[in-house]
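User: Predict the structure for this protein chain, please.
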Amino acid sequence: MACCTAVFGQDTTLADMLTETYEGKADTLTECLIKRFMYTRRGYFYAVPVDRPDRANQTEFIYWQQAHAMDVLVYSYERIKDSNPTLAQTYEGYFNQWFANHANNWYKDENDETGFHNEFTDDMCWIALTMTHITEATGDEKFIEMAKTLFDTYIEPLGYSDDEGYWGLPWKLNNADRNACTNAPGCLLAAKLYKYTGEQHYLNVAEKIFSFWQHVMQTKLSNDGRVEEPPLTYTQGTFGEACRQLYGITGKSTYMTMAQKVINYACTSNRCVYNGILRHEGTSMDQSIFKAVLIPYAVNLVLDEACRERYRKSILQFLAKNADTLWENLNLAAYPKIYCNYYWAEPFDESTVASMGAMVSGASLMENVARMALALKNPTAINGITTSTSDNGKVYDLNGHIVASDATRLHMLRPGIYIVSGRKTVVR
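Assistant: Here is the predicted structure, written as structure tokens:
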């Protein structure tokens, strides 16, 4: 049975806590996601299975969800690009189609030259974050350059300071409400743009948003680890990852402390977990995809050696339990019509319509647990990504993300260990 049910001693390493790599399981779920939900000629995803006659109508307003569906393929790409270059090339085609068709953006602005502008600020943040992820995976900078354009042109200009001096982003155009679902990805996006450009301005924005949301959590949410009320997995994960990135940039312990607090809350609180498994958060396309956002950021925390070991081990064990439980409840005989349920401890009800959001959440879980297992079992790999001399000098952090386009930008990075052309380089 699953490694997650075992009891481990203090001397047990994280790698020892996993009994498999989960690669085959990740392959299966990602293949089913593509075969059953993806419009491959345009690079985006249907809300319901491809053979549903109403698939186009069901998908009309599915935009921010496209980011997280595509993220699953990006994680798969990172995992298989060396072992299966043909499939990786197919994925690159999907990335480019997704980009060319503006991720199914339903909002039409005749003054928008990008095609990605949307009235919802958070939607643009999520789409831009996936663009940065594609650049990190492929090295193609057109994606992150578009993310930068979106942030500079449409996202940041909406921000404002309140009477107390806290700066944040509103939820949408002509709406002053500043919520977690916008400011968490906004903070993370600003941090990632700083890492890409080295421009202090982006770091300033990320830190301003952090200060704003830390204030919200301390004054309105009892400072118990909730990022919003009710606590939802996607904002818990995203704000935690923003904090983890800020720690990596600045070295300030406040950020790592917050990252541990909010992601651990999502993995332990009975507000987010039911019987040891991430809870059923709802059947809407928004609600069903929430867990897909948390999972990769929880994995990033496990793989970050700056995180306290007790958090790394407990979150790893929790994620493995969720992955094993999901797999046990899948109808594998129905391939490729293998569908993930909204709650992973129960099988999908075959009499109902399958949900792209639920499928993405399950596939994200398996892809990222596979990424976690590979990174821990192969310490010469970087988060499951192996670099080579063909990387043309790109600079990676120890989480496998491209942090600079070439070694001439090393001086812009904070002190630490980086990977350049497959070799570790120390920046002092």
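The beta strands are 38-39, 44-45, 160-161, 167-168, 273-274, 277-278, 395-396, 402-404, 416-420, 423-427.
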